[in-house]
Amino acid sequence: MGEAGGGKRWNFGANEVVELSCSQYVRYYMNVLADNLDPTDNRPVIPLAHGDPAPFPSFRTDPAAVEAISDALHSGQFNHYANTSGLPIARKAVAEHLSLGLSYQISPDDVHLTAGGHNAIDVLISTLAVPGANILLPRPSYPMYNARAGFSKLEIRSYDLLPEKGWEVDLDVVEALADDKTVAIVVVTPCNPCGNVFSRQHLQKIAETASKLGILVIADEVYRNITFGETPFVSMAEFADIVPVMLLGSISKRWLVPGWRFGWMVTVDPHNIMKDSGLVHSLVNVLNMSIDPVTFIQGAMPDILEKTKEEFFSGKMEILRECAETCYEEIKKIPCMSCPYKPEASMFTMVKLEPSVLEDIKDDLEFCCKLAKEESLMILPGRSVGFKNWLRITFAVEPALLKDGLSRLNKFAQRHSKKKLQP
Ligand SMILES: Cc1ncc(COP(=O)(O)O)c(C=O)c1O
């Protein structure tokens, strides 16, 4: 409520809940960084702040996926509204795709299609946000969960991921944080922002802890199969016998098409716990009020999932592996930062900043703002993912651009380091 237009009082104005929750979101910090860019710098801006490699030639999607979309459009069969949880052919295709290599068979009825992983988070958090409830979120986090929970007034309790233990979940903290109002724990594997993937043993421990606490496991597998190190990807669905699991996923990252906005929520619930509790019914009610993924993309899903060849995925994993290696090795050479864990999954790494060795920079936010201004290089301050004085860097960009970015980062760090550290 405010006064504007010659002192007249109006009954509307800013929404403080929105202001507060949105200030925790990546796009907010991206805008802050963009405002700091120097328009007179003629060099290309290097975007290491957000994970979207799709614009770069090395990360083009598979032609088979483009052809599937084109065929769906030309068929003229997918111009209509879709049903609440999605077209049956698309739900079936996703169920079959996710069941591959899994010891549990996912039914098409368990699959609810969404406009990307983002929309799945929206729907799920809205459904879980009953008055008084709380949710366990990782720290560092994918901050969309925090923003969305804050917006829905679902209390956030943050548990730590431990850098010294390969970013595993601190399960003692999880147990200490939960109470009888805790509805769920979110785990992101492969992990944005830490670049790790949970082992089978660790997933089992998380499932057992959640079962003991009587809470749902929300497994964000948007980076499903994006692994290029020693630890293979294992789906949380493998542990649905222990605890009900809600899988979230999308084609945004693996097919490199975040703009296509196609994702899913899958209830993996062999004992019908989610169904009998009424959660699935409420979820479908929220889906009824929500936007659907575009119908022609749903129509193309069977072909996208079936016809994309293994060589496409393995080729992209190789590029990502090399980019992760370059990033890790180059960071080691920079005086004011360290990377406790070599990334082996997703598209990101967390880097620890030592502001005490910098001359005129007090924290991560100032570091990133000055970096944007002086080097046209965008890196996300760790506070945006809940880790102050860390940085989140994406290595999923064109390899030559990544090398240029890391060299700019090194020069910037040298220039701002206390003199005694310089050669
Ligand atoms: C962990 C995680 N979950 C969900 C999403 C949202 O997925 P989508 O791009 O499919 O909306 C992202 C996007 O970056 C993500 O990193």
UniProtKB/TrEMBL annotation:
<dbReference type="InterPro" id="IPR015421">
    <property type="entry name" value="PyrdxlP-dep_Trfase_major"/>
</dbReference>
<dbReference type="GO" id="GO:0005829">
    <property type="term" value="C:cytosol"/>
</dbReference>
<feature type="modified residue" description="N6-(pyridoxal phosphate)lysine">
    <location>
        <position position="253"/>
    </location>
</feature>
<dbReference type="InterPro" id="IPR015422">
    <property type="entry name" value="PyrdxlP-dep_Trfase_small"/>
</dbReference>
<dbReference type="Pfam" id="PF00155">
    <property type="entry name" value="Aminotran_1_2"/>
</dbReference>
<feature type="domain" description="Aminotransferase class I/classII large">
    <location>
        <begin position="44"/>
        <end position="409"/>
    </location>
</feature>
<comment type="similarity">
    <text>Belongs to the class-I pyridoxal-phosphate-dependent aminotransferase family.</text>
</comment>
<keyword id="KW-0808">Transferase</keyword>
<dbReference type="GO" id="GO:0004838">
    <property type="term" value="F:L-tyrosine-2-oxoglutarate transaminase activity"/>
</dbReference>
<dbReference type="InterPro" id="IPR005958">
    <property type="entry name" value="TyrNic_aminoTrfase"/>
</dbReference>
<dbReference type="InterPro" id="IPR015424">
    <property type="entry name" value="PyrdxlP-dep_Trfase"/>
</dbReference>
<dbReference type="GO" id="GO:0030170">
    <property type="term" value="F:pyridoxal phosphate binding"/>
</dbReference>
<protein>
    <submittedName>
        <fullName>Tyrosine aminotransferase</fullName>
    </submittedName>
</protein>
<keyword id="KW-0032">Aminotransferase</keyword>
<dbReference type="GO" id="GO:0006572">
    <property type="term" value="P:L-tyrosine catabolic process"/>
</dbReference>
<dbReference type="InterPro" id="IPR004839">
    <property type="entry name" value="Aminotransferase_I/II_large"/>
</dbReference>
<keyword id="KW-0663">Pyridoxal phosphate</keyword>
